[in-house]
Amino acid sequence: MDVPEGLISRLCHLLAFLPFFLLLLLLAVVKAAFIAPIVFVTVLVGNTALILGLYPLHAVWTCYCIARTKRFGSLLKVLILLLMLVPILLWPLSALIGTILAGLGFAIALPLMATFEAVREGIPNKLSECFTAGTWSSIKGGFTIVRDFKDICFHSYFSVMDGLLEAGGETIMDLRISQVPGYILAGILGMLIDMPMISLIVLYKVPIMLFKGWRQLIQDLIGRSGPFLESVCVPFAGLLILLWPVAVVLTAIAGILSSLSLGCYAAAENSTTSGILYVVAVISMFDEFTNDFLYLREGSCFPRPKYRKAAISRSASLPRKHAPARAESLPLKRPLIKTASMKMQELKAIVIWDNFFMACESAGKELIRAGAIRISDLEEWQNSKNKTINIGIPSYVFLQCFVRSIKSGSVGFVMRDNVELTYINRPEGRVFDWLFEPMTLLKEQIKAANLESTEEEYLYKLALYCGDARMMTSWQNGGVAPADAVKRAQLEGLSRRLQGFSLTISRMPTFRRRFEAVVKALLQEARQGFQKNDGVSEVGLQPKPAEGIPKEGKNSQVQT
To answer: Residues annotated as region Disordered (predicted)?
Structure first.
């Protein structure tokens, strides 16, 4: 690393803030000692009540949905139901252990991080904020955690089970009795071979991760001229250096635990031979994945046989981020971890999440003014009985984003406030790997469809109303179904993929809580519009048609 000019002065600058950092750390520890027990008890009691209270329902309903679904064949259903006994019996214990660990983590982290955030720019009275930040907000955060867990146990769980019950017309997954011993053998070999080998790889690379992470953090502190040399970021840098070993240990535990699922995945292959070859190949794939994560040499020293007829470049369990073609100009080496100085250049996940819900609220208000959404639709959503609100509005927003991005020529996605999200500035993480690539594929499919204006408006209706013919005919936005049956089927397929993606988003943590605030704002908007209009629709719940949605310069109106 090139030593920058003025290194001595920067070191003195850094040392001058060490007492400041130590005082903040001491204050954070004292606050955590008082606040953490309250937060921990809140999370523990709330989540435990949900786990134990819903356990009988979850166990019975899961078995019922597996038995009734049309997605699996008879033999596969029997096998799944037999194997389900293990997770059903282990679920209460594992969930309670996870609750204890999560409660401890949040109870300590919330007041700790809030104390350091109190010295950020824009805070008028930093001294008093250092003492008050992270007290009541941490307690409210504990209740928020319980609320989000409740949404997962109720809405996300039943959404997944409903999807299993409603599955139809798809290829039925089944197996033959003669294949069962081979699957069991492959799964057992996967556990016996992959678990110890992957665990050894993890333990071997733990010191490398610890050393490289510390080295990079210290280099960023001393060698950069960026934000780490500012007073607001030095405390975070010191805290990150102290907590880096904890992050390394948690990563190692996650890697070791993943070896079980990776080994058992061998039983999912189409034949015993493929399963055994997978047992050997997954060791190489995991080694290569960790090498990429730690920015070590490419490839792996372990053999990697082809275990499927169609060669695959990576496992579905080990996602990797593929950069677009124009990313060739990017540097080949990127840091092991994203420090504060680098996060200044990337979009934060919370910014994207906030932008999505603001877009849902804005689009919802436009649809209400156009008469496309009724008050009854919003009220039905509260009982989880309306797909137009829960899936239609997010699908509509995503479609707007894709169309906007295509028309602007963006390689990524142009959000509603003209902030562009690309491979370069998107947040890191497996969740964004799982979401960004399907979004890119959907965008390219819409672009390849080369839609006319009427077809584009028709696709908006398909996405919003989830194929409800009655609702689609009641809202006239200028969209006309293509005369070509192939093109019409193509648009219907695009709308189903949009809705499937939105359904996946709706099952994510915090979605229900955030979307409930959006629905409340839309209800208020709809009732205000209802009071201002003299006439109502035939059902007495829809306001008079207003001017259309200001989308690409087009107006919409409702049939009366």
So the answer is: 534-560
CB 114 within 8 A of CB 134: yes
Residue with tokens 């490839």: 299
Tell me the longest C-alpha to C-alpha distance in the chain.
78
Q: Are 341 and 224 in contact (CB under 8 A)?
A: yes
Q: How many residues does the chain have?
A: 560
Alpha-carbon distance 322 to 284, whole Å? 19
β-strands 557-558, 475-476 pairing:
antiparallel
- Averaged pLDDT of the chain: 79
Q: What value does the mean pLDDT take over residues 435-439?
A: 85
DSSP notation for 185-212: HHHHHIIIIIHHHHHHHHHHHHHHHHHH
Q: How far apart are the first and last CA of the chain?
A: 71
Which two three-digit tokens encode residue 371? 């008469």
CA distances for 335 relative to 214, 308, 424, 480, angstroms: 12, 34, 14, 51
User: What six digits make up the tokens of 485?
Assistant: 């049956």
Q: For residues 416 and 110, what is the distance between their CA atoms, to the nearest angstrom?
A: 31
- In Å, what is the CA distance from 344 to each residue of 153, 214, 391, 432? 35, 20, 33, 18
Query: Would you say the C-alpha torsion 341, 345, 346, 350 has a positive or negative sign?
Result: positive
Q: Tell me if residue 413 falls in helix, strand or coil.
A: strand
How would you label 179-211 residue by residue, b for 16+ Cβ within 10 Å and e otherwise?
eeebbeebbebbbebbbebbbebbeebbeebbe
Assign residue 250 a region: left if phi > 0, alpha if psi is -120 to 50, beta otherwise? alpha
DSSP-assigned letter for residue 153 = I
Q: According to the model, what pLDDT value does residue 543 have?
A: 43
d(CA 292, CA 315): 14
pLDDT in tens, 25-76: 888 888 889 999 999 999 999 999 999 999 999 999 999 999 998 888 888 8
CA distance 415 to 478: 24
Phi, psi of 554 (to 5 degrees): -115, 145
Angle of helix 157-166 relative to helix 485-506, nearest 10 degrees, comes to: 150
Write the CA distances from 509 to 93, 313, 521, integer angstroms.
21, 31, 21
Rounded to whole angstroms, the Cα distance separating 322 from 293 reads 13
β-strand partners of 476: 557
- The pLDDT value recorded for residue 402 is 93
- CA dihedral for 320, 321, 324, 328, sign (positive or negative): negative
Which residue reads 């679920």 in tokens? 91
Residue that the structure tokens 């104390």 belong to? 115
Interatomic CA distance for residues 402 and 408, integer angstroms: 10
pLDDT confidence bin for 222, thresholds 50/70/90? low
Residue 66's CB is within 10 A of a number of other CB atoms, namely 19
Please name which of 521, 515, 506, 517 lies closest in space to residue 391, comparing C-alpha atoms. Answer: 506
